[in-house]
Amino acid sequence: xxFLWNFKSGLSARGYERLNDEQAGERALREFVxxxxxAAGKVRPMAVSSWxxxxxxxxxxxxxxxxxxxxxxxxxxKPHGRLHFAGDHTATLMTGMEGAMESGERAALExxxx
Length: 114
Hints:
Elements: H1 21-35, H2 68-72, H3 96-113
């Protein structure tokens, strides 16, 4: 391939939210070359996307504190009148894209059943 994807999450992503795209790309490149010195001078950042800095997402995955799943687990995905909600934050089995797909299927079935 021609591309190398570099995903940062958890503690390894700490501080990236304060960087602009150029700074984030440079930091990711430094970290990559530190782990794989033979890549020095052979790769370069092409694009940066930050879920944390995206005003429509403000983060990557939903995190639930202890007890919140039992207390609120089925609340976010419940229909409200004719509105049906989907997204990985409403999923019950998975997170990320798999959770989004799971909840999309659930919401679609709810619409069909309504």
